Amino acid sequence: MEEARRWIETDESAMEMLARTLAQRPFLLMPPLHRVPLRVGNVVEIVGPSSSAKSEILLQAAVNCILPKDWNGVHFGGLEQLVVYFDLDCRFDVLRLSHALRCRIMEASGFAKGEFQVGSLHFHETVDPSSYSSEELFLVCMRRFLYIRCYSSSEFLSTLKTMRHRIQKESEAQGVRVRFLMIDRRNFSLQCITESIVLEISRLLQMEPMLVLATKAAILRIELTRNELRGSSGKWAFEENFGSTREQEKYREFMPSAWQAFVTHRVLLRVSEEKLRDVDDKLLPIYMSQWVVPPLNYSDKFYVTDSKVYALKGGGLDPCLKLSVRPSPIILSPNAANVPLQRAATWQPADHEVLIFHFG
Amino acid sequence: MPPLKNLEQEFPIIDAEFRQFCSSHGIFSVEDFLVNDLYSLAAFAEGEAISDKLKQGIAQVLSIIDRQHQPWLNGLELLEDAQMKKRFLPTGCQWVDSLLQGGLREGHLVELAGPSSSGKTQLCLRAAAHIADRKLGTIMFLDTGNSFSPERVSSFLDPSTTSSSLPKEAQERRCRRVMSSILCRSVFDIFELQDVLNRLSITLGRKGKDEATRLRLLVIDSISSLITPILGGRDSHGRSLMVSAGYALKRLADESNLCVLVTNHMVGGEGGLPKPALGESWKSIPHVRLLLSREHGSHISTVSVLRHTSMAPGGAAKFAIDGGQPIAVSPD
To answer: Nearest-CA residue of chain B relative to A307?
Structure first.
């Protein structure tokens, strides 16, 4: 009888359930991670060849996470959470992080005052007294970034085994939780080590719900090396097949199956041969991304500036980029004359949400 | 990582009983502990008669494991380390320095790739001469192909090509000082290199830090000629030696705050196009990769950025490899 009553008793009210699910609502991340709703507990693998902006995406996501939502009446749109960054590559550049963070802070507070101009400010030199509060914000944000360098897999594993205590201490001290776990870049060969790494991470995820972002270098075929040396003149073999399923065959999966089964999302990155001309007349590389897990049939293009990752879509720029303050960038394509972006923006897609830029 | 029985002296809790319990679960060393699931191990310990003692033992091993990894840092501590301890080392070529936003960074592993006679060694020698001349510290040159040339270094200091007009004795003194702060050593295989790096990290870790004479730049010219002989074949042994050498260099660079400059020669790839001798797997190891090239018959070398931790690839600069004077060649 007692048992039957317990069986029909409710677990939680709708209110409680809503509060619980809302706490785990999908993150709104910057491109190219904006395409798929991600929540805590997901494991996202970012795959791409050397210098395809993998680490840059991790870094920008980290900036998003450590920034507050609002600060002194200025909207930053961050998550105000801790980030744990595992640097297995030992190539993390903290100056890059601090520069991106400063740019974001300056940009947001500048936009609020309405006096900010992209590209005309040198953030290093100008620290005027009015930026005192932004300096304080900078320090608070930097403290939310936890970093560890691992020179070997066993160091990584020993960190994972003992990090829970450290995370708890840190999140109690700062009053915020860890939301992102970033791993730059995983390359392990030993089966047993990978298995126990996966076990430790999944255990950690049960205790502390987090979003895991891991990068992985794709070992592509030989054309890449050659292409890199030739500059941008060559054409990648797989570019023509972009969008079909064939490009998946072109990169070799080398991670053990334990890790592959652990990954819930996978996105492929590559460098496109087009370049974007900046305000300062610098050429910025344009990157392309495609989701493999879950399979999506379109690809996004994006580019990276000092402060943000911007999507290039539908022949126009991301709405968050103010075209009025930034002279229109020009896309350089090897087989087309320079077409200013703003003109291209008048060409509207019929019923697609996203489109890839076409020239010539 | 030590076997458990070696730990008993230091930690009496890891006694024969505890080790017997561990070995019944296939654990004999700290490494086995790492790979095993400690939660299920603790659950097994619960069922034993001496469960408290076993759990204490597990906690003890965990705290030993905790000492195996690098320290946790937050963003501020990292930033402080980078700003206080990692400085820029000028190469002496104005445009290369401005391309690299100040020069070679301490803590970085920088690779120069390029075909034969594209100026790789020249850039290394010039950077060494310049750093020594500016009294920034000591330079170590690991020479794998007898490419180090003291005459060349002294020609960079030659008064006829530099603007300074020192008296002859002062010039000689300067030359002697520069030469004495460049240490050269021949290394002919990868195992010797590993040995040198090991000893270097021990001496650098021990020595009191004297800023004026500490090691600032480690040049390996060329690292590819050490590694390519062991690459190839079907097993990945050579590859893993390469990766571990790369990590050893990065670790040395970070912990001893020095810049490591290595060169990578080119070989014929598929279709006759040249490609770096250390290819796809090496690519992801250095912090900065620079590609050097030189037009046939010209003295001007072009440096372009293949990758950089804080810069988009694609920038380029030029320098002259002929004559001592760092000729100001504009970036295009």
So the answer is: B310
d(CA A260, CA A250): 17
Phi-psi group of A7: left, alpha or beta (phi > 0 → left; psi -120 to 50 → alpha; rest → beta): alpha
| Contact assessment for residue B141 and residue B183, using Cβ atoms and an 8 Å cutoff | yes
Binary contact (B73, A147; C-beta < 8 A): yes
The 8-class DSSP code of residue B63 comes to: H
What would the DSSP string read from start to end of A32-87?
TTTSS-B-TT-EEEEEESTTSSHHHHHHHHHHHHHS-SEETTEE------EEEEEE
Substitution target from B79, B239, B259 for chain A, most A beta carbons within 10 A: B79
Per-residue pLDDT of chain A (360 residues; tens, 9 = 90+): 788 887 777 777 888 877 776 666 667 677 788 888 888 888 999 988 877 888 888 999 899 889 988 888 888 888 888 899 999 888 888 999 999 999 988 888 776 554 444 444 444 444 444 566 788 899 999 999 999 998 888 888 888 888 888 888 888 888 877 778 888 876 656 677 888 888 888 888 888 888 899 988 876 554 444 444 444 333 333 333 344 344 444 566 777 788 888 899 999 888 888 888 777 777 788 888 888 888 888 788 888 887 788 887 654 444 444 333 333 444 444 444 443 333 333 332 222 222 222 222
Delineate the domains of chain A, giving CATH numbers in brackets: 27-312 (3.40.50.300)
Contact A31, A311 (CB under 8 A): yes
Q: Say yes or no: A199 contacts chain B, CB-CB below 8 A.
A: yes
**Tokens 């090496």 -> residue:** B282
Cβ-Cβ contacts under 8 Å, A229 against chain B: 273-275, 291
Identify from B61, B285, B308, B309 which residue to disrupt to test chain A contact, counting A C-beta atoms within 10 A and taking the largest count. Answer: B309
Where in chain B are the domains? 4-66, 81-320
Q: Which of A170, A55, A95 is nearest to B80 (CA)?
A: A95
Kindly report each contact of residues B317-320 with a partner whose C-beta sits within 8 Å and lies 24 or more positions away, as own/partner. Answer: B317/B93, B317/B95, B317/B96, B317/B98, B317/B99, B318/B95, B319/B93, B319/B95, B319/B96, B319/B119, B319/B123
| CA angle, A128 then A133 then A138, to 5° | 100
**C-alpha span between A96 and B78 (Å, rounded):** 12
What is the token pair recorded at A357?
Answer: 């830029």
CATH, domain B81-320, list 1.10.390.10, 3.40.50.2000, 3.40.50.300, 3.40.50.460: 3.40.50.300
Q: Give the largest Cα separation in chain A, rounded.
A: 81
pLDDT digits (tens), chain B, 332 positions: 778 888 888 888 888 888 888 888 888 888 888 888 888 888 888 888 888 888 888 888 888 888 888 889 989 999 999 988 898 999 888 888 888 888 999 999 999 999 988 889 999 999 999 999 988 899 999 999 888 989 888 888 865 555 556 678 888 888 999 999 999 999 999 999 999 999 999 988 876 667 778 899 999 998 999 998 888 777 778 888 898 899 999 999 999 999 999 999 988 877 778 888 887 788 888 999 999 998 887 888 889 888 888 777 777 888 876 654 544 444 44
Q: Which of B236, B287, B312 sits opposite A285 (nearest CB)?
A: B312
Residue A327's identity, in one-letter code, is P
Q: Show residues of chain A in contact with B314, CB under 8 Å.
A: 275, 283, 285
Chain A residues 25-64 within an 8 A CB cutoff of chain B: 50-51, 55
Dihedral of the alpha carbons of A132, A133, A134, A136, in degrees to the nearest 10: 90
What are the distances in angstroms from CA A22 to CA A18, A25, A39, A130? 6, 5, 11, 37
